[in-house]
Amino acid sequence: MFSSRLPRDFQTNRLTQALDAERRAGTPILDLTISNPTAAGFQYPPEIVHAFDDPRCLRYEPTPAGLPAARAAIAQYYAARGVKVEPEHLLLTASTSEAYAYLFKLLADPGDQVLVPRPSYPLFDCLAAMESVELCPYPLSYHGRWSMDLDALAARITDRTRAVILVNPNNPTGSFLKQTELQRLAPFCAERRIALISDEVFSDYAFENDPERVTTLARVEECLAFSMSGLSKIAGLPQMKLGWIVTSGPAPLRTQALERLEWISDTYLSVGTPVQHAAARLLAAGETVQKQIRERARGNLQFARQELAGTSASLLEAEGGWYGIVQIPRVRTEEEWTLELLAKCQVLVQPGFFYDFESEAFVVVSLLAEPRDFQAGLQRLARFLRA
Hints:
Blueprint (H helix, E strand, L loop, with lengths): L13 H11 L5 E2 L15 H4 L17 H12 L10 E4 L2 H12 L5 E6 L5 H7 L3 E9 L3 E3 L1 H6 L5 E7 L11 H14 L2 E5 L25 E6 H4 L8 E6 L2 H18 L4 H36 L5 E2 L7 E5 L6 H12 L1 E2 L1 E2 L10 E5 L4 H16 L1
Helix pairs in contact: 1-11, 3-10, 4-9, 10-12
């Protein structure tokens, strides 16, 4: 009696079952999978709480695209990064997950196809299934650094393809889109009337400067493009539930897309009034948290690189983001690796297949973990590898 868009099996995987058993037994676990910055020991400025001390929060003003003041604050966020975004080209959502849902509704009919990078964000399958959209993966290749395989991407285009998704920088590879890749991709999509969707939630977390890097598609003019971000990552505030879509591209297509997105948003009106009024102050206060996250991610990545040197594992190069990828020997499956690390070392990591890696064996570690826990976890991992 339930929709076929939902999973048929809600049974938890073996790693989750093993973790639950360890926790029930009271085993202390070094969690190297943490993705919630509010639980990672960062110092949050009190201005975040005071940002909601605003009597306007008591007045409901249903505005499908978002309150003008909130959109102006987000436009200023881009301006501070040298990118001009018109507030009228912004539409607010409660999250980037909701933004994906809106864009799938906008661009695709049931059974249409969207291309997604592989490896990448593990929730794509769920988001697409709930919109009756078919996903087709295109590969990211690694040869000392990650890059898009544009020829493989082109070979996967069909007459049902409606959009190409970029995660920029990618989660978990930490790789950014490059100018040379965009110069090929944008006209390719324009010619075929395919939209680009760019998830840019980690764009502020680059480890080094690189002039070849594309930080946002908000400047794209050749094809219809959508850039998404939100407070969850850029301010370390996942609980505030404020995301957005920047629409760019040829003016006629952009106007049509914005009209339709606003109609979709008007059906749900999910973004809370208080967070919209607080947006400017939250973005400003979030800079403090963002700086802490960047420093910790760089430090943890450097420690991992040093600790794994001389072992049978290697740390893949990353340009940014919150995650590190460790390539480990293929002497056992990723599932076996993660289960053994949990049982024998009390270290929790994620297997590469959670992110749809094409081959084994990889594990993914979070660079958000507090340095003491991260260092202890990497030391145990290194000892296990040497043994």
